[in-house]
Amino acid sequence: MTPPRRERGLVRPYVVTGGRAYPTRNTFDLVTLVIAQHDRPLSELNPEQRRLVELCRGGALSVAEVAGHLELAVSVTKVLLGDLVDSGHIVTRAPIPKAQLPESQLLQEVLDGLRASL
Amino acid sequence: MTQHISEVVFWCVAAALLIVAVLLLRQRQITTGLRKHNAALETSLRARDEEARHLVEVRLPAAEDSGHQSLPAPGLLDEQLTGTAYAWHLQQATEQFAGAVEKAQTRADQAAKAALKASMRALQGLAHEQQLSISRMQDRHDNPDVLRDLLEIDHANSQFGRRAQAIAVLCGSWPGRQRAASPLLDVVRGATSRIRDYRRVRVHAQVDIAVASRAVEPVVLAVAELLDNAARHSQPNTAVEVNLQPAHNGACVVIDDAGVGMDGQEIERATRLLSGRQSVDVSRLGDPPQFGFAAIGILAARYGFNVSVDTRSPYGGVRAVLFLPSVLLTHVTEDGPSTVAAATPPAVPSITTAAGAAPTHTRTPTQAGPQAAAARPAAPRTPTDHEDGEPVIHGSTAGGLPKRRRRQPAPGRATTAATPAAPLPPAEQAPARTAEETARRMGAFARGTRSGRATNPNDEEGNSPA
After folding, report:
1. Which domain holds residue B204?
2. Taking CB atoms and an 8 Å limit, are A10 and B154 in contact across chains?
3. CB-based contact (8 Å) between A7 and chain B?
4. What is the ipTM of this complex?
5. Does domain A13-117 have CATH number 2.120.10?
6. A68 and chain B in contact, CB less than 8 A
7. Which of B329, B353, B377 is the last residue of a domain?
8. What is the pTM assigned to this prediction?
9. Residue B432 lies in a domain
10. How far apart are CA B278 and CA B272, in angstroms?
11. B374 contacts in A (CB within 8 Å)?
């Protein structure tokens, strides 16, 4: 028996979100990282939410990655994530900021020091 | 002498009178006989006239009406005509008329079905196309306002597609969509997607049963029709409860509504339609036509599942039970090869190699921490486990997925490959099939094409369940 692939067109997004289009909170970005909390029971979640939490248990994933894995639209994923944050199943974290560029003055000093030492 | 003459005359006259008397008597007898005969003929004629009138006014309309029901046809008006040639001819006329009526009805039914089927298939195709564009739009736009409108359009489109599909099935078409084997829960939720009041449906399930690929679409359609009936015939503030239960040799989908229920006559009609044994006349489904049960009946008979609606729900309405025999089921375990991560490279490019290769459930928190998941675009992996070579990538698809060309034993390959032996001929590279397997496959192919041609559900051949 081949393992079933999720049929994309079978369960429509309005059933997944219960007809809602707006996430309960507007804090999600494509690169927001979501992390699952381990101590929450999964029994009351719908299948997509359960898969989402199981997916995130491995570590932090961005919203875009979660949507890609679940084969759901990003906006639908955000609705699900909003519910899961409300129920405490996942926590979010702002994306890791780009490393601050060192100041040019510092670089200049390092360069000068290197030149001096040569 | 004169006396002698007068005596002769007397005797002559007497004889003449006698003859005249005899003749008169005979004449009278003949006349009476003729009159009687005439009267009898007249009665008979009137009886036949009456009989002809009876034929036109009673027997032929009855034959016309009886159509599909097998009511006893009204017989002769006058019992005396039984057994005569006249009665036989009348009987012949009635039978020919009934035959002609039936033939005309069949032809009309077939024509109606063919026309409906063709137009519904066109609509189905359009609904499907539209669904694809809606899905694409949902993917493309990350905006709740757009999503809200798209969800409404999507919902309407799904219902529209289901209607077209049900009518097409009723007219002898196939359900039309090939789907992969899917968990029963997804099948029921897929059915929920296609009804108006999907928010009222509550599905309770903790089963890991999946429906085999060929039965997914028909079961979705059947469950959708049942759910639609349940939701339509109950108050808008009540819930429609769906329970999925494993059974001894199959699985059950139990649908309870808290509606008005059905009376005995309706149950009888529903049971008759759901059995799928009776051919359905599209012109006799009422106004507005009720396609649901008839379509379910056809699907049930064709794919071998079973639907009953004759139980009363504990909530007061109808309990509909759809029983799926184990032939139509397959088992899916959630810890099989991951269906999400490994099988298809996701559309989002930034996935770590560890996450892409390992099934999601095996990842431990230590293995893939936040740093592992940091946005580091991995090389496009193609899921290949062949020991004899790396994947050869030739360009990429429009969606950015790598394309592979079917591998052939290239002539230059033998020299570059590390294996000293000459490359195997292609026939030996493929695992050799046994004769039985080949025969089985050919048989399956032949059965498939045959059942594909015979879309009439009444045909015995073809897709009859094991």
Report:
1. 181-353
2. no
3. yes
4. 0.78
5. no
6. yes
7. B353
8. 0.66
9. no
10. 7
11. 96
